[in-house]
Design goal:
Shape: globular
Radius of gyration: 18 Å
Distance between the termini: 33 Å
Strand content: 25-35%
Low-confidence stretches: none
Helix content: 25-40%
Strand order of the largest sheet: 2-5-1-6
Number of helices: 3
CATH superfamily: Dimeric alpha+beta barrel
CATH class: Alpha Beta
CATH topology: Alpha-Beta Plaits
Number of domains: 1
């Protein structure tokens, strides 16, 4: 079994109406969908953990040079995507992780229409690099092409 992180972006899908403006029954349907999906994945033994995060307006970014830390409060308009929450699944194949991610992306929004939220699917490493050679191998998997 392999663990994958499914990161749910705050970035909205085709309908960018804030959830605060949804009808109560739409919010209920949204939450019920997640509850049913999580119950199914817990029953199959595939759901390891799930978490929802506060909005980016409450986020802080910390940078440090090793001596002095700088803490910046949100909102951060220059950052295009923020993680809204995540699930960790333990599955047989990457294809299964992608299937689950598709179901998370299809959570209903206004009018019962799937939100189509972008879901990042990233394999959780069994262990981090232990030496320079292992770090080189890891870095070879990282794309440095930032658009």
């Amino acid at each position: 079994m392999t663990r994958y992180l499914l990161a749910v972006d705050f970035q909205s899908g085709p309908d960018d109406t804030p959830m605060e403006q949804w009808q109560p029954e739409e919010v209920t349907a949204h939450l019920d969908y997640y509850r049913a999906l999580y119950a199914e994945l817990e029953a199959s033994g595939e759901l390891v953990d799930h978490t929802i995060l506060t909005g980016p307006d409450l986020a802080k970014v910390v940078t440090s040079d090793g001596t002095r830390s700088v803490v910046t409060d949100g909102p951060f308009q220059e950052i295009k995507e923020w993680v809204a929450g995540f699930q960790i699944v333990d599955v047989e194949t990457e294809e299964r992780a992608l299937e689950i991610a598709a179901r998370v992306s299809a959570v209903p929004g206004r009018g019962g229409v799937p939100t189509q939220q972008p879901i990042q699917v990233r394999r959780v490493m069994d262990e981090g690099p232990a030496d320079a050679a292992a770090m080189d191998d890891f870095l070879a998997t990282v794309t440095h092409d930032h658009h």
